[in-house]
Amino acid sequence: MSRRTLLKTGVAGGAALLAAHWLYTRSTVQSVADTRFVALAPDARAIVAAIVPVLLDGALPTGGAAVAALDAVVIGVDVAIGGLPPAARKELDQLFSLLAFAPTRSLVAGVWSPWPEASPAAVADFLAQWRDSRLLLLRSAYAALHQLVMAAWYGNERAWPAIGYPGPPSLAIG
Fold this sequence. Notes:
This protein is mainly alpha-helical. It has helices at residues 3-27, 42-55, 64-82, 86-100, 102-109, 120-131, 136-154, 160-163. The radius of gyration is 19 Å and the shape is elongated.
């Protein structure tokens, strides 16, 4: 590859990334702010809501309690991200932007439908591919998503009875 071809490829790639970012920000629907969330944008909340049932398969309650538990986990992920250093929050925001933008979601994650419509099988395939990827970046992104979801669920009082955790000990003062 000649230096000229390399430069042309670099400029074309940069232009493509700039165009993708511009298209994403232009196509993002502005929604009413949900005051329960500090760190997760609506697109990121949809991604987390799609991966939670797959990562916590068998751990979440069923029936009417499932919706409340899912909501609690998404809020817990938001709280966890809100407590991270700014650099880590920025990296997660970039990850969620990549997964929210339809072309990159399809190419990088293999999920062709929007996150709220994605089947559990498609989400499970995406997570397995990233978990087992030979690329450290994808494995790291999977680990971040996995750890955030697990911390949000198992740090929640709703999960404790199922795992036999009585809760933190009460401290008697005095």
